[in-house]
Amino acid sequence: MAWHRTLAVALNRINGLAALACHVLLMVITGITVAQVFLRFVLNNPTSWSEEIALLCLIWFGLLAVAVGIRRHEHVAITFFRDLLPGRIALALDYVAQLAMACFMFTVMYYGADLIALSGVQVLPASGLAKSLLYLPAIVGGVLGMINAFGNMVLRDVTLAEHAVEVTNVG
């Protein structure tokens, strides 16, 4: 089953790039905010564009981070009740959770596309950037989140099967 290793490597690389983008965006947000505070309160000469750019970076950061969190299983989960259930039911509940995340990310993507269409050729007033850049992360994050949720479901079966074979071979 070499295809699952290829899939896992591809997903991990894509998510690694998204995580790197999140790190860069966080540094940009911090840099812009610190510069704006300095310019406003020390030099009394604030910029007009800094809040828009920081907001744009924050939206990209948030939606990419949600998608990466799906792949890494880093979202808040209440496992107390799941852990009380028999193994097959608990596993089914995990699949339902991944499917729910995929459906949610599809909804984010779907309505993000609507917002892009509604924004048309509008521009942000201070920076002059296209307003659609505020909604594009919904599409990118939505697609990545869906891919990650489905990838988690596919790779979970393979990982569990491999683990069962390894345990059988050891014993």
UniProtKB/TrEMBL annotation:
Subcellular location: Cell inner membrane
Record has Transcription as a keyword: no
Keyword list, A-Z: Cell inner membrane, Cell membrane, Membrane, Transmembrane, Transmembrane helix, Transport
Membrane protein topology class: Multi-pass membrane protein
GO cellular component, one term: plasma membrane
GO terms of molecular function: transmembrane transporter activity
Transmembrane residue ranges: 20-41, 53-70, 91-113, 133-155
Domain Tripartite ATP-independent periplasmic transporters DctQ component: 29-155
One BP annotation, GO: C4-dicarboxylate transport
Top-rank taxon: Bacteria
Pfam families: DctQ
Free-text function comment from the UniProt entry: Part of the tripartite ATP-independent periplasmic (TRAP) transport system.
Family of the protein in this entry: Belongs to the TRAP transporter small permease family.
Subunit (UniProt): The complex comprises the extracytoplasmic solute receptor protein and the two transmembrane proteins.
Name of the protein: TRAP transporter small permease protein
Species: Nitratireductor basaltis
Taxon lineage: Bacteria, Pseudomonadati, Pseudomonadota, Alphaproteobacteria, Hyphomicrobiales
